[in-house]
Amino acid sequence: MSWPQLRRPRLLARAPRGDSRLALLLLLALAPLLAAGTHCPCSEPELCSPIQHRPDFEVFVFDIGGKTWKSYDWSQITTVAVFGKYDSELMCYAHSKGARVVLKGDVSIKDIIDPTFRTSWIAQKLDLAKTQYMDGINIDIEQEVTCLSPEYDALTALVKETTNSFHREIEGSQVTFDVAWSPKNIDRRCYNYTGIADACDFLFVMSYDEQSQIWSECIAAANAPYNQTVTGYRDYIKMGINPKKLVMGIPWYGYDYTCLNLSEDHVCTIAKVPFRGAPCSDAAGHQVPYKTIMKQINSSISGSQWNKEQMAPYYNYKDHAGYFHQVWYDNPQSISLKAAYIQNYGLLGIGMWNANCLDYSKDAIAKQQTEEMWKVLKPKL
Ligand SMILES: *[C@@H]1O[C@H](CO)[C@@H](O)[C@H](O)[C@H]1NC(C)=O
Ligand SMILES: *[C@@H]1O[C@H](CO)[C@@H](O)[C@H](O)[C@H]1NC(C)=O
Ligand SMILES: *[C@@H]1O[C@H](CO)[C@@H](O)[C@H](O)[C@H]1NC(C)=O
Ligand SMILES: *[C@@H]1O[C@H](CO)[C@@H](O)[C@H](O)[C@H]1NC(C)=O
C-alpha cells in the first residue's frame, strides 16, 4: 500500500533534532502512527489499515447512509458497500469488526471506451479509497450494453484494470461487480459475465427486481420468486462461473402495486408500464422497505399470504381513495429457502439491498422482526 507522499516528511520534520537517540526512539514509537497516515480518524491508528482476512462466507451489506449501521448484526458482516455519504465512524467501526468498507463505482459506459478515461477514473477512485481508508470498490453499472459492442469489451477491461490497480495499491482489497439476477440480457445488459467474473473478486448477483421485464400477463408478482432466482444461478454456473465467485443478493424491500382489478383469487392486474422492450414491468409499482411493510400488514385486508408457486409472501390492502393494492415482499420464510440454496450449491455468500430497510427502533415487535431477518442470513451448521 502506498501512502500519500506529503504526509510522512511533514511529521518526520517535527521530530526533535537535539538527541538523535531520542529521535530514533520517538520514531520507533511513532512508526505505527506513521504507517496509518497522519489523518487516521479512528481511535486506534491500526483501524485505518485495510482488512486482510478473506472470509469463507461473505455477508455483503449495502448501506445507504445515516446511522442505522450502529444497529446492524456485526457478528455476520464481512463487507459494507457505502452507497450513502462517507462516514469515517462507520469505517473505523467496520474495521474494528474485521469487515471491509468499499466504495461505490459508477461511470458512464460511453466514457469508458476511451482507455485514458478509464485510467483516470480508476486513479480517482483509488485515491478516494486510500484517503478514506477503504478496502475496495463495488462497481454498480446497470446500463444497457449491446452484445459485442465496444462498450461490451470496455466494461470487461474496466473491471480488470480496476482490480489490478486496487489489488496492487491496497493490500487485501476487494473489487466486486453487480450483475442482474440472470445472465440472459436482463434489461438489455449484455455483459461479458465470465470475463468480468474472472477479472474481479466476485459478482454480487442482484436477485431482485425480477419483474423489471414482464413478457407475459401484466399482473403483480414476487420481487424475487424462488424458481426464477435459482434459474439465474443455474445459468451463471452453467456458463462456467465458479459458485465461489457468486454472492446472492436478496431484497429487504418489496413492491406495492395498485391493482386495476383484484380478482377473488388474488390476481392483481397492473398498469402497462414498458421497460427496455418489455410491455410491462415492476415500474408500475413502487418499492417499499421491509419496515414499512411490517407496519402495514396487520391492517391489510388479506393478512400475510403465501404464494406456493413463487414461494413468496404478499398481502392486499385498500388505500384511502378506495383502490386495491397488492404488496409482494421477502420475509424470513422466503429468504431462508434462498439461504439454503446458497449452502447447497456452495455460493460464496449472501447480501442485501439494503441494510437500512429494517426497523432498528426500540419497539419490541420491530426488534424481533429485525433480528429474524438478520438471523436467516447465517449458514446453518
Ligand atoms: C470475455 O472476456 C474474456 C477476458 O477478457 C475474453 O477472453 C473473452 O474472449 C470474452 N468473451 C467474449 C464472448 O467476448
Ligand atoms: C375483476 O375482478 C372481479 C372480482 O374478483 C372479477 O369478477 C372480474 O372478472 C375481474 N375482471 C377482470 C377484467 O379480470
Ligand atoms: C401483527 O399481528 C401478528 C399476529 O397477530 C402479531 O404477532 C404481530 O405482533 C402484529 N404486528 C404488529 C406490528 O402489531
Ligand atoms: C420450480 O422448479 C421445479 C424444479 O425445476 C419444478 O419442479 C417446479 O414445477 C417449478 N415450480 C414453478 C411454480 O415453476
TrEMBL record:
GO terms for molecular function: chitin binding; chitinase activity. The keyword DNA-binding does not apply. SUPFAM superfamilies: (Trans)glycosidases. It is found in: Lysosome. One of its GO terms (biological process) is oligosaccharide catabolic process. Residues 1-381 form the GH18 domain. It comes from the Eukaryota. Keywords: Glycoprotein, Glycosidase, Hydrolase, Lysosome, Signal. PROSITE patterns: GH18_1 (PS01095), GH18_2 (PS51910). Residues 1-37 form the signal peptide. SMART domains: Glyco_18. One of its GO terms (cellular component) is lysosome. InterPro entries: Chitinase_II/V-like_cat, Chitinase_insertion_sf, DIAC_cat, GH, GH18_Domain-Containing, Glyco_hydro18_cat, Glyco_hydro_18_chit_AS. Its main location: other. Involved in the degradation of asparagine-linked glycoproteins. Hydrolyze of N-acetyl-beta-D-glucosamine (1-4)N-acetylglucosamine chitobiose core from the reducing end of the bond, it requires prior cleavage by glycosylasparaginase. Belongs to the glycosyl hydrolase 18 family. This is Di-N-acetylchitobiase.
